[in-house]
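The instructor's notes for this session suggest beginning with a concrete chain rather than abstract definitions. Hand out the sequence below and ask the class to guess, before any prediction is shown, which regions might be ordered.
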Amino acid sequence: MKNKIYLLSCVVVIFLSCNTEKENNPDSYRDNKEQSETLQLIEPKTDKEIKNYIVNEISLTEIKAQQYPDASLSLKNQPFKEGLNALHFTIENNQNFGITTIQNNYTIQTHSSAIFEQEFLTGNNVFLAFLTDKNKLAIKTNKATFLENIVLFDEPIFNTKAPHLFYYLPQNNQAILDFCLLNTSLSENGNQLEVIINETVFYIKKWAAYQIEGLTKKENTIRLRLLDKDKKLIPGPFNDSGERMFTIKNQNS
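After discussion, reveal the predicted structure:
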């Protein structure tokens, strides 16, 4: 009986030791600061041109958003842990702020406070955060954007030097196209964004937010793909958003 109790005690000690080692292991979070410094948001140029794309009576019209060149977003936390993390952002030069977070180009959340909780799991957590204006449009500057691949108990597999696309809008009741680009830009003779709305295809060559008009259905589908100048998909884990659904209140909005 004593032997059984001793064996059970050893198993408990080993289990607790493994968990403690996982929680306290300094290598559990991999600091990718050097890699993060290679990430670059190529800020769109300010101009007076308003781009308009019309296909099959559906139109995408550029929204001229207000500029916030001095607005900045930074995160105090580091290192990160597995599970819920209380994130403490610092925001400067933007009183009417909102923060949008996108994790692994899937979970999209909006926040009205600079302090909130975010769950990170074992593996690669590509975490993007950016400031939005009063109309919930993304502020497309380096200062207003934060991105880090938070790697927990794993090896980093996210290429910080490659071009990346992140899907943001539309979401339900927002007939607006908006997205985030890193390490790339759009141009007439360069990379472009393929937008497929209800099987209607657009090729966007200017990074901006766009009002979507001419939809005749309440429920709609959209897909974004980052293409090169030859209209070939640029390799990357998020450069094809897959088909997403969104609804609108008024069918002719």
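Then share the key points. The chain is about 10% helix and 40% strand. The helical segments are 2-24, 33-36.
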